[in-house]
Amino acid sequence: MGITALKTALPRELLASVVVFLVALPLCMGIAIASGMPPAKGLITGIVGGLIVGWIAGSPLQVSGPAAGLAVLVFEVVREYGMAMLGPILVLAGLLQLLAGRFKLGCWFRVTAPAVVYGMLAGIGVLIVLSQAHVMFDSGPKPSGLDNLIAFPSTLIQAFGPGTGMQAGMLGLGTMLIMWGWEKLRPQSLRFVPGALLGVGIATGISLFMALQVKRVEVPDNLADAIDWLRPTDLMNLADPAILVAAIVVAFIASAETLLSASAVDRMHSGQRSDFDKELSAQGVGNMLCGVLGALPMTGVIVRSSANVQAGATTRFSTIFHGLWLLAFVLLLSSVLQSIPVASLAGVLVYTGLKLVDLKAFRGLGRYGRMPMFTYAATAVAIIFTDLLTGVLVGFGLTLVKLAFKASRLKINVVELAGEKEFELRLVGAATFLKVPALTQALGTIPQGSTVHVPLGNLSYIDHSCLELLEEWGRSNAAHGTRLLIEPHGLKRRLEGRIYTTTGIGSGAA
Q1: Is residue 401 part of a domain?
Q2: Could you give the number of structural domains in the chain?
Q3: What is the pTM of this model?
Q4: For residue 57, what are the domain limits?
Q5: How much of the chain is in helix, strand and coil states, percent to nearest 5?
Q6: Does 377 reside within a domain?
Q7: Average pLDDT value for residue range 95-119
Q8: Which conformational region is residue 399 in: left (phi greater than 0), alpha (psi within -120 to 50 degrees), or beta?
Protein backbone atom coordinates (compact mmCIF):
# COMPACT_ATOMS: atom_id res chain seq x y z
CA MET A 1 0.00 0.00 0.00
CA GLY A 2 1.37 3.40 -0.99
CA ILE A 3 1.77 6.39 1.33
CA THR A 4 -1.18 8.23 -0.24
CA ALA A 5 -3.49 5.23 0.05
CA LEU A 6 -2.36 4.68 3.64
CA LYS A 7 -3.13 8.29 4.57
CA THR A 8 -6.57 7.93 3.04
CA ALA A 9 -7.30 4.66 4.84
CA LEU A 10 -5.76 5.57 8.22
CA PRO A 11 -8.76 7.45 9.72
CA ARG A 12 -11.06 4.55 8.82
CA GLU A 13 -8.59 2.02 10.24
CA LEU A 14 -8.28 3.97 13.49
CA LEU A 15 -12.07 4.07 13.93
CA ALA A 16 -12.35 0.35 13.20
CA SER A 17 -9.54 -0.40 15.67
CA VAL A 18 -11.39 1.44 18.44
CA VAL A 19 -14.54 -0.59 17.73
CA VAL A 20 -12.58 -3.86 17.84
CA PHE A 21 -10.85 -2.74 21.05
CA LEU A 22 -14.23 -2.06 22.69
CA VAL A 23 -15.44 -5.53 21.64
CA ALA A 24 -12.24 -7.28 22.69
CA LEU A 25 -11.74 -5.69 26.12
CA PRO A 26 -14.56 -7.43 28.04
CA LEU A 27 -14.20 -10.67 26.06
CA CYS A 28 -10.46 -11.00 26.79
CA MET A 29 -11.11 -10.77 30.52
CA GLY A 30 -14.27 -12.86 30.50
CA ILE A 31 -12.71 -15.71 28.54
CA ALA A 32 -9.73 -15.71 30.92
CA ILE A 33 -12.09 -16.08 33.88
CA ALA A 34 -13.98 -18.87 32.09
CA SER A 35 -10.62 -20.57 31.49
CA GLY A 36 -9.77 -20.52 35.20
CA MET A 37 -7.06 -17.91 34.60
CA PRO A 38 -6.56 -14.31 35.85
CA PRO A 39 -8.18 -11.68 33.57
CA ALA A 40 -4.77 -10.14 32.83
CA LYS A 41 -3.75 -13.35 31.02
CA GLY A 42 -6.52 -12.82 28.50
CA LEU A 43 -5.49 -9.21 27.99
CA ILE A 44 -1.89 -10.28 27.29
CA THR A 45 -3.14 -12.71 24.64
CA GLY A 46 -5.27 -9.98 23.06
CA ILE A 47 -2.27 -7.64 22.95
CA VAL A 48 -0.07 -10.30 21.34
CA GLY A 49 -2.84 -11.10 18.86
CA GLY A 50 -3.00 -7.47 17.78
CA LEU A 51 0.58 -6.22 17.89
CA ILE A 52 2.42 -9.38 16.78
CA VAL A 53 0.04 -11.68 14.89
CA GLY A 54 -1.66 -8.68 13.27
CA TRP A 55 1.61 -7.82 11.48
CA ILE A 56 2.25 -11.29 10.05
CA ALA A 57 -1.26 -12.71 9.64
CA GLY A 58 -2.32 -14.30 6.37
CA SER A 59 -5.87 -13.06 6.90
CA PRO A 60 -5.38 -9.28 7.21
CA LEU A 61 -8.88 -8.44 8.48
CA GLN A 62 -9.08 -11.28 10.98
CA VAL A 63 -8.58 -10.34 14.64
CA SER A 64 -6.81 -12.82 16.92
CA GLY A 65 -7.12 -13.21 20.67
CA PRO A 66 -8.44 -15.52 23.39
CA ALA A 67 -11.42 -17.52 22.15
CA ALA A 68 -14.41 -19.02 23.92
CA GLY A 69 -13.87 -22.16 21.84
CA LEU A 70 -10.73 -22.99 23.83
CA ALA A 71 -11.93 -21.84 27.26
CA VAL A 72 -13.26 -25.25 28.27
CA LEU A 73 -10.08 -27.06 27.23
CA VAL A 74 -7.86 -24.55 29.03
CA PHE A 75 -10.00 -24.86 32.16
CA GLU A 76 -9.54 -28.65 32.09
CA VAL A 77 -5.78 -28.32 31.57
CA VAL A 78 -5.37 -25.79 34.39
CA ARG A 79 -7.50 -27.87 36.75
CA GLU A 80 -5.65 -31.08 35.91
CA TYR A 81 -2.04 -29.92 35.59
CA GLY A 82 -1.87 -26.41 36.99
CA MET A 83 -1.38 -23.03 35.34
CA ALA A 84 2.36 -23.57 34.86
CA MET A 85 1.76 -26.45 32.42
CA LEU A 86 -0.15 -24.24 30.00
CA GLY A 87 3.10 -22.59 28.85
CA PRO A 88 4.79 -25.76 27.50
CA ILE A 89 1.51 -26.90 25.96
CA LEU A 90 1.14 -23.63 24.04
CA VAL A 91 4.76 -23.63 22.90
CA LEU A 92 4.35 -27.10 21.40
CA ALA A 93 0.88 -26.34 20.00
CA GLY A 94 2.23 -23.17 18.39
CA LEU A 95 5.19 -25.06 16.95
CA LEU A 96 2.81 -27.61 15.41
CA GLN A 97 0.77 -24.79 13.87
CA LEU A 98 3.90 -23.10 12.54
CA LEU A 99 5.11 -26.32 10.93
CA ALA A 100 1.65 -27.06 9.53
CA GLY A 101 1.65 -23.66 7.85
CA ARG A 102 5.18 -24.07 6.52
CA PHE A 103 4.30 -27.47 5.04
CA LYS A 104 1.16 -26.05 3.40
CA LEU A 105 -1.28 -28.09 5.51
CA GLY A 106 -3.74 -25.26 6.08
CA CYS A 107 -6.24 -26.68 3.62
CA TRP A 108 -6.44 -29.95 5.59
CA PHE A 109 -7.73 -28.19 8.70
CA ARG A 110 -10.56 -26.82 6.57
CA VAL A 111 -11.84 -30.24 5.52
CA THR A 112 -13.15 -30.95 9.01
CA ALA A 113 -16.83 -31.88 8.74
CA PRO A 114 -18.99 -28.81 9.53
CA ALA A 115 -21.26 -30.99 11.69
CA VAL A 116 -18.30 -31.80 13.96
CA VAL A 117 -17.13 -28.16 14.16
CA TYR A 118 -20.60 -26.77 14.87
CA GLY A 119 -21.30 -29.57 17.33
CA MET A 120 -17.98 -28.90 19.07
CA LEU A 121 -18.78 -25.18 19.39
CA ALA A 122 -22.29 -25.98 20.65
CA GLY A 123 -20.93 -28.34 23.30
CA ILE A 124 -18.35 -25.75 24.35
CA GLY A 125 -21.09 -23.11 24.47
CA VAL A 126 -23.23 -25.22 26.81
CA LEU A 127 -20.24 -25.90 29.08
CA ILE A 128 -19.46 -22.17 29.23
CA VAL A 129 -23.07 -21.42 30.16
CA LEU A 130 -23.11 -24.11 32.85
CA SER A 131 -19.83 -22.96 34.42
CA GLN A 132 -20.34 -19.19 34.16
CA ALA A 133 -23.87 -19.41 35.54
CA HIS A 134 -22.20 -20.16 38.90
CA VAL A 135 -19.69 -17.32 38.49
CA MET A 136 -22.57 -14.97 37.68
CA PHE A 137 -23.86 -15.54 41.24
CA ASP A 138 -20.42 -14.96 42.81
CA SER A 139 -19.87 -18.69 43.22
CA GLY A 140 -17.16 -20.91 41.73
CA PRO A 141 -17.48 -23.31 38.75
CA LYS A 142 -17.37 -27.06 39.32
CA PRO A 143 -14.93 -29.53 37.67
CA SER A 144 -17.25 -30.76 34.89
CA GLY A 145 -20.34 -29.82 32.94
CA LEU A 146 -22.45 -32.45 34.69
CA ASP A 147 -21.25 -31.25 38.11
CA ASN A 148 -22.11 -27.66 37.16
CA LEU A 149 -25.59 -28.73 36.07
CA ILE A 150 -26.27 -30.73 39.22
CA ALA A 151 -24.90 -28.02 41.54
CA PHE A 152 -26.71 -25.06 39.97
CA PRO A 153 -29.92 -25.37 42.06
CA SER A 154 -27.76 -25.24 45.19
CA THR A 155 -25.96 -22.13 43.90
CA LEU A 156 -29.31 -20.51 43.15
CA ILE A 157 -30.65 -21.31 46.64
CA GLN A 158 -27.51 -19.88 48.25
CA ALA A 159 -27.94 -16.70 46.21
CA PHE A 160 -31.25 -16.05 47.98
CA GLY A 161 -29.50 -16.31 51.35
CA PRO A 162 -27.01 -13.96 53.01
CA GLY A 163 -24.10 -12.73 50.92
CA THR A 164 -23.70 -11.03 47.56
CA GLY A 165 -24.96 -13.84 45.33
CA MET A 166 -28.28 -12.25 44.41
CA GLN A 167 -26.74 -8.82 43.84
CA ALA A 168 -24.12 -10.36 41.57
CA GLY A 169 -26.76 -12.43 39.78
CA MET A 170 -28.84 -9.34 39.03
CA LEU A 171 -25.78 -7.58 37.60
CA GLY A 172 -24.99 -10.59 35.40
CA LEU A 173 -28.57 -11.02 34.20
CA GLY A 174 -28.82 -7.27 33.63
CA THR A 175 -25.68 -7.38 31.48
CA MET A 176 -27.20 -10.17 29.38
CA LEU A 177 -30.49 -8.28 29.02
CA ILE A 178 -28.69 -5.13 27.88
CA MET A 179 -26.65 -7.12 25.33
CA TRP A 180 -29.80 -8.75 23.95
CA GLY A 181 -31.77 -5.49 23.83
CA TRP A 182 -28.89 -3.57 22.23
CA GLU A 183 -28.53 -6.26 19.56
CA LYS A 184 -32.24 -5.93 18.70
CA LEU A 185 -32.75 -2.16 19.08
CA ARG A 186 -29.33 -0.59 18.43
CA PRO A 187 -29.63 2.62 16.34
CA GLN A 188 -27.72 2.61 13.07
CA SER A 189 -25.73 5.65 14.16
CA LEU A 190 -24.44 3.76 17.23
CA ARG A 191 -23.78 0.41 15.57
CA PHE A 192 -20.08 0.70 16.47
CA VAL A 193 -20.86 0.46 20.21
CA PRO A 194 -20.67 -3.22 21.25
CA GLY A 195 -23.41 -4.58 23.48
CA ALA A 196 -20.91 -6.35 25.76
CA LEU A 197 -19.11 -3.10 26.57
CA LEU A 198 -22.39 -1.27 27.14
CA GLY A 199 -23.69 -4.02 29.43
CA VAL A 200 -20.48 -4.22 31.46
CA GLY A 201 -20.24 -0.42 31.66
CA ILE A 202 -23.79 0.00 32.97
CA ALA A 203 -23.41 -2.90 35.42
CA THR A 204 -20.14 -1.42 36.71
CA GLY A 205 -21.71 2.02 37.12
CA ILE A 206 -24.68 0.61 39.05
CA SER A 207 -22.45 -1.48 41.30
CA LEU A 208 -20.28 1.53 42.15
CA PHE A 209 -23.25 3.87 42.66
CA MET A 210 -24.94 1.40 45.02
CA ALA A 211 -21.62 0.40 46.65
CA LEU A 212 -22.34 -3.30 46.11
CA GLN A 213 -19.81 -5.61 47.76
CA VAL A 214 -19.62 -8.05 44.85
CA LYS A 215 -16.48 -9.73 43.52
CA ARG A 216 -14.54 -7.51 41.16
CA VAL A 217 -11.89 -8.12 38.51
CA GLU A 218 -8.37 -8.53 39.84
CA VAL A 219 -5.85 -6.90 37.50
CA PRO A 220 -2.31 -5.97 38.63
CA ASP A 221 -1.34 -2.30 38.51
CA ASN A 222 1.74 -3.35 36.52
CA LEU A 223 1.02 -5.69 33.60
CA ALA A 224 4.52 -7.16 33.90
CA ASP A 225 3.43 -8.71 37.21
CA ALA A 226 0.94 -10.87 35.28
CA ILE A 227 3.64 -12.40 33.06
CA ASP A 228 4.81 -15.86 34.11
CA TRP A 229 7.89 -16.48 31.99
CA LEU A 230 8.34 -20.01 30.70
CA ARG A 231 11.20 -21.81 32.42
CA PRO A 232 13.36 -24.24 30.41
CA THR A 233 12.67 -26.92 33.01
CA ASP A 234 8.93 -26.64 32.26
CA LEU A 235 9.58 -27.98 28.75
CA MET A 236 10.66 -31.29 30.27
CA ASN A 237 7.00 -31.93 31.09
CA LEU A 238 6.30 -32.38 27.38
CA ALA A 239 7.60 -35.92 27.82
CA ASP A 240 4.32 -36.68 29.62
CA PRO A 241 1.98 -38.31 27.04
CA ALA A 242 -1.04 -36.53 28.53
CA ILE A 243 0.65 -33.14 28.04
CA LEU A 244 1.53 -34.08 24.46
CA VAL A 245 -2.08 -35.01 23.73
CA ALA A 246 -3.29 -31.73 25.24
CA ALA A 247 -0.88 -29.77 23.01
CA ILE A 248 -2.05 -31.61 19.89
CA VAL A 249 -5.71 -31.01 20.78
CA VAL A 250 -5.07 -27.29 21.40
CA ALA A 251 -3.23 -27.02 18.05
CA PHE A 252 -6.01 -28.79 16.16
CA ILE A 253 -8.95 -26.92 17.69
CA ALA A 254 -7.21 -23.54 17.50
CA SER A 255 -6.30 -24.14 13.85
CA ALA A 256 -9.75 -25.37 12.86
CA GLU A 257 -11.47 -22.43 14.59
CA THR A 258 -9.01 -19.92 13.10
CA LEU A 259 -9.43 -21.12 9.52
CA LEU A 260 -13.20 -21.45 9.90
CA SER A 261 -13.23 -17.82 11.05
CA ALA A 262 -10.91 -16.74 8.20
CA SER A 263 -13.24 -18.36 5.66
CA ALA A 264 -16.20 -16.52 7.18
CA VAL A 265 -14.32 -13.20 7.12
CA ASP A 266 -13.47 -13.67 3.43
CA ARG A 267 -17.19 -13.92 2.69
CA MET A 268 -17.80 -10.56 4.39
CA HIS A 269 -15.63 -8.40 2.14
CA SER A 270 -14.29 -8.16 -1.42
CA GLY A 271 -10.70 -7.26 -0.55
CA GLN A 272 -7.58 -9.37 -0.16
CA ARG A 273 -8.28 -13.08 0.31
CA SER A 274 -6.80 -15.08 3.18
CA ASP A 275 -3.59 -17.07 2.80
CA PHE A 276 -4.52 -19.97 5.08
CA ASP A 277 -1.01 -21.41 5.38
CA LYS A 278 0.45 -18.01 6.29
CA GLU A 279 -2.37 -17.46 8.78
CA LEU A 280 -1.71 -20.84 10.37
CA SER A 281 1.99 -20.02 10.75
CA ALA A 282 1.16 -16.62 12.25
CA GLN A 283 -1.14 -18.25 14.80
CA GLY A 284 1.67 -20.65 15.65
CA VAL A 285 4.06 -17.77 16.33
CA GLY A 286 1.41 -16.09 18.48
CA ASN A 287 0.68 -19.19 20.54
CA MET A 288 4.37 -19.89 21.07
CA LEU A 289 4.82 -16.34 22.35
CA CYS A 290 1.74 -16.69 24.59
CA GLY A 291 3.26 -19.88 25.97
CA VAL A 292 6.51 -18.08 26.77
CA LEU A 293 4.55 -15.29 28.53
CA GLY A 294 2.25 -17.68 30.40
CA ALA A 295 -0.89 -16.31 28.72
CA LEU A 296 -3.98 -17.89 27.16
CA PRO A 297 -4.00 -19.59 23.75
CA MET A 298 -5.26 -17.57 20.81
CA THR A 299 -7.25 -18.17 17.67
CA GLY A 300 -8.75 -16.03 14.96
CA VAL A 301 -12.06 -14.89 16.47
CA ILE A 302 -15.16 -14.33 14.34
CA VAL A 303 -16.91 -11.91 16.75
CA ARG A 304 -14.01 -9.43 16.76
CA SER A 305 -13.24 -10.02 13.07
CA SER A 306 -16.82 -9.36 11.94
CA ALA A 307 -16.87 -6.17 14.03
CA ASN A 308 -13.63 -5.16 12.29
CA VAL A 309 -15.08 -5.65 8.80
CA GLN A 310 -18.41 -4.00 9.66
CA ALA A 311 -16.55 -0.97 11.06
CA GLY A 312 -14.99 -0.42 7.62
CA ALA A 313 -11.49 -1.84 8.04
CA THR A 314 -9.67 -2.65 4.80
CA THR A 315 -6.11 -3.30 6.03
CA ARG A 316 -4.32 -5.08 8.87
CA PHE A 317 -3.64 -1.76 10.64
CA SER A 318 -6.98 -1.84 12.47
CA THR A 319 -6.02 -5.17 14.05
CA ILE A 320 -2.59 -3.86 15.04
CA PHE A 321 -4.00 -0.64 16.53
CA HIS A 322 -6.58 -2.55 18.58
CA GLY A 323 -3.70 -4.38 20.27
CA LEU A 324 -2.05 -1.02 20.95
CA TRP A 325 -5.25 0.33 22.57
CA LEU A 326 -5.49 -2.77 24.77
CA LEU A 327 -1.90 -2.29 25.93
CA ALA A 328 -2.39 1.43 26.60
CA PHE A 329 -5.64 0.87 28.52
CA VAL A 330 -4.11 -1.80 30.76
CA LEU A 331 -1.02 0.31 31.46
CA LEU A 332 -2.82 3.61 32.09
CA LEU A 333 -6.30 2.69 33.34
CA SER A 334 -5.95 -0.57 35.24
CA SER A 335 -7.99 0.93 38.11
CA VAL A 336 -11.02 1.09 35.79
CA LEU A 337 -10.71 -2.63 35.09
CA GLN A 338 -10.46 -3.35 38.83
CA SER A 339 -13.92 -1.85 39.36
CA ILE A 340 -15.70 -4.24 36.95
CA PRO A 341 -17.91 -6.87 38.66
CA VAL A 342 -16.89 -10.43 37.83
CA ALA A 343 -20.59 -11.32 37.56
CA SER A 344 -21.00 -8.86 34.70
CA LEU A 345 -18.19 -10.50 32.71
CA ALA A 346 -19.75 -13.89 33.50
CA GLY A 347 -23.00 -12.57 32.02
CA VAL A 348 -21.10 -11.68 28.83
CA LEU A 349 -19.73 -15.23 28.70
CA VAL A 350 -23.14 -16.84 29.32
CA TYR A 351 -24.57 -14.78 26.47
CA THR A 352 -21.61 -15.70 24.25
CA GLY A 353 -22.01 -19.38 25.16
CA LEU A 354 -25.66 -19.31 24.18
CA LYS A 355 -24.71 -17.79 20.82
CA LEU A 356 -22.26 -20.67 20.21
CA VAL A 357 -25.22 -23.07 20.25
CA ASP A 358 -26.08 -22.23 16.65
CA LEU A 359 -29.51 -23.76 16.03
CA LYS A 360 -29.62 -22.14 12.60
CA ALA A 361 -26.52 -24.12 11.62
CA PHE A 362 -28.13 -27.24 13.10
CA ARG A 363 -31.24 -26.79 10.97
CA GLY A 364 -29.06 -26.02 7.94
CA LEU A 365 -27.35 -29.39 8.30
CA GLY A 366 -30.76 -31.00 7.85
CA ARG A 367 -30.57 -30.16 4.14
CA TYR A 368 -27.91 -32.85 3.84
CA GLY A 369 -29.83 -35.57 5.67
CA ARG A 370 -30.27 -36.72 9.24
CA MET A 371 -26.74 -38.00 9.76
CA PRO A 372 -25.06 -34.54 9.92
CA MET A 373 -27.68 -33.41 12.44
CA PHE A 374 -27.08 -36.55 14.50
CA THR A 375 -23.30 -35.97 14.34
CA TYR A 376 -23.78 -32.37 15.54
CA ALA A 377 -25.95 -33.49 18.47
CA ALA A 378 -23.76 -36.47 19.41
CA THR A 379 -20.59 -34.35 19.36
CA ALA A 380 -22.17 -31.68 21.56
CA VAL A 381 -23.65 -34.16 24.04
CA ALA A 382 -20.39 -36.12 24.30
CA ILE A 383 -18.45 -32.92 25.03
CA ILE A 384 -20.95 -31.87 27.70
CA PHE A 385 -21.00 -35.19 29.54
CA THR A 386 -17.38 -36.35 29.03
CA ASP A 387 -14.69 -33.96 27.80
CA LEU A 388 -13.69 -31.99 24.73
CA LEU A 389 -11.32 -34.56 23.25
CA THR A 390 -13.79 -37.43 23.64
CA GLY A 391 -16.56 -35.38 22.08
CA VAL A 392 -14.46 -34.43 19.06
CA LEU A 393 -13.38 -38.06 18.61
CA VAL A 394 -17.04 -39.13 18.72
CA GLY A 395 -17.81 -36.60 15.99
CA PHE A 396 -14.92 -37.77 13.82
CA GLY A 397 -15.88 -41.40 14.44
CA LEU A 398 -19.43 -40.80 13.22
CA THR A 399 -18.09 -38.94 10.19
CA LEU A 400 -15.83 -41.87 9.32
CA VAL A 401 -18.73 -44.30 9.74
CA LYS A 402 -20.75 -42.19 7.33
CA LEU A 403 -17.87 -42.10 4.85
CA ALA A 404 -17.41 -45.86 5.12
CA PHE A 405 -21.11 -46.37 4.49
CA LYS A 406 -21.07 -44.05 1.49
CA ALA A 407 -17.90 -45.64 0.13
CA SER A 408 -19.38 -49.12 0.41
CA ARG A 409 -22.60 -48.37 -1.47
CA LEU A 410 -22.94 -50.50 -4.56
CA LYS A 411 -25.87 -50.84 -6.93
CA ILE A 412 -26.05 -54.30 -8.52
CA ASN A 413 -28.35 -55.07 -11.45
CA VAL A 414 -28.48 -58.13 -13.71
CA VAL A 415 -29.80 -57.07 -17.13
CA GLU A 416 -30.71 -59.51 -19.92
CA LEU A 417 -29.31 -58.39 -23.29
CA ALA A 418 -30.69 -58.95 -26.80
CA GLY A 419 -28.45 -61.95 -27.55
CA GLU A 420 -29.42 -65.47 -26.54
CA LYS A 421 -28.48 -66.14 -22.90
CA GLU A 422 -26.46 -62.95 -22.80
CA PHE A 423 -26.47 -60.84 -19.63
CA GLU A 424 -24.81 -57.76 -18.23
CA LEU A 425 -23.88 -57.42 -14.57
CA ARG A 426 -24.10 -53.68 -13.96
CA LEU A 427 -22.14 -52.36 -10.98
CA VAL A 428 -22.32 -48.71 -9.87
CA GLY A 429 -20.48 -47.36 -6.81
CA ALA A 430 -17.71 -48.99 -4.79
CA ALA A 431 -17.28 -52.76 -4.81
CA THR A 432 -15.70 -53.64 -1.47
CA PHE A 433 -15.59 -56.81 0.62
CA LEU A 434 -18.76 -55.62 2.38
CA LYS A 435 -20.71 -56.26 -0.83
CA VAL A 436 -19.45 -59.80 -1.48
CA PRO A 437 -22.68 -61.43 -0.17
CA ALA A 438 -24.90 -59.21 -2.36
CA LEU A 439 -22.67 -59.81 -5.39
CA THR A 440 -22.75 -63.57 -4.79
CA GLN A 441 -26.54 -63.48 -4.64
CA ALA A 442 -26.76 -61.55 -7.92
CA LEU A 443 -24.42 -63.98 -9.72
CA GLY A 444 -26.57 -66.85 -8.48
CA THR A 445 -29.53 -65.58 -10.53
CA ILE A 446 -27.66 -65.92 -13.86
CA PRO A 447 -28.41 -69.21 -15.75
CA GLN A 448 -25.52 -71.54 -16.51
CA GLY A 449 -24.17 -71.44 -20.05
CA SER A 450 -24.66 -67.69 -20.32
CA THR A 451 -22.32 -65.00 -21.56
CA VAL A 452 -21.94 -62.39 -18.82
CA HIS A 453 -20.50 -58.92 -19.42
CA VAL A 454 -19.18 -57.08 -16.35
CA PRO A 455 -18.31 -53.46 -17.28
CA LEU A 456 -16.35 -51.75 -14.49
CA GLY A 457 -16.44 -48.21 -15.86
CA ASN A 458 -19.16 -47.09 -13.40
CA LEU A 459 -17.20 -48.22 -10.36
CA SER A 460 -15.18 -45.76 -8.30
CA TYR A 461 -13.25 -48.66 -6.77
CA ILE A 462 -13.13 -52.46 -6.66
CA ASP A 463 -11.07 -54.41 -4.15
CA HIS A 464 -9.45 -57.83 -4.55
CA SER A 465 -12.23 -59.69 -2.71
CA CYS A 466 -14.88 -58.71 -5.26
CA LEU A 467 -12.53 -59.23 -8.19
CA GLU A 468 -11.57 -62.70 -6.97
CA LEU A 469 -15.24 -63.56 -6.46
CA LEU A 470 -15.98 -62.70 -10.09
CA GLU A 471 -12.98 -64.67 -11.34
CA GLU A 472 -13.76 -67.69 -9.19
CA TRP A 473 -17.41 -67.67 -10.30
CA GLY A 474 -16.28 -67.51 -13.93
CA ARG A 475 -13.85 -70.41 -13.48
CA SER A 476 -16.29 -72.63 -11.61
CA ASN A 477 -19.03 -72.13 -14.23
CA ALA A 478 -16.79 -72.29 -17.33
CA ALA A 479 -17.29 -76.08 -17.57
CA HIS A 480 -21.03 -75.44 -18.07
CA GLY A 481 -20.41 -73.11 -21.00
CA THR A 482 -20.50 -69.87 -19.03
CA ARG A 483 -18.31 -67.03 -20.31
CA LEU A 484 -17.48 -64.13 -17.98
CA LEU A 485 -16.18 -61.00 -19.73
CA ILE A 486 -14.74 -58.48 -17.28
CA GLU A 487 -14.38 -55.11 -19.00
CA PRO A 488 -12.07 -52.92 -16.89
CA HIS A 489 -12.06 -50.03 -19.35
CA GLY A 490 -11.97 -46.75 -17.39
CA LEU A 491 -11.03 -48.33 -14.06
CA LYS A 492 -7.38 -49.29 -14.59
CA ARG A 493 -6.10 -46.99 -11.84
CA ARG A 494 -8.75 -48.05 -9.37
CA LEU A 495 -8.32 -51.81 -9.60
CA GLU A 496 -6.48 -53.57 -6.81
CA GLY A 497 -3.94 -55.93 -8.35
CA ARG A 498 -4.37 -57.29 -11.85
CA ILE A 499 -6.59 -55.85 -14.54
CA TYR A 500 -7.42 -58.82 -16.70
CA THR A 501 -8.95 -62.07 -15.58
CA THR A 502 -7.22 -65.41 -15.37
CA THR A 503 -7.41 -68.62 -17.36
CA GLY A 504 -10.86 -69.78 -18.35
CA ILE A 505 -12.41 -66.31 -18.34
CA GLY A 506 -12.61 -63.92 -21.23
CA SER A 507 -11.61 -60.26 -21.02
CA GLY A 508 -13.68 -57.74 -22.86
CA ALA A 509 -11.90 -55.19 -24.97
CA ALA A 510 -14.68 -52.66 -24.93
Answers
A1: no
A2: 2
A3: 0.76
A4: 11-356
A5: 65, 10, 25
A6: no
A7: 87
A8: alpha
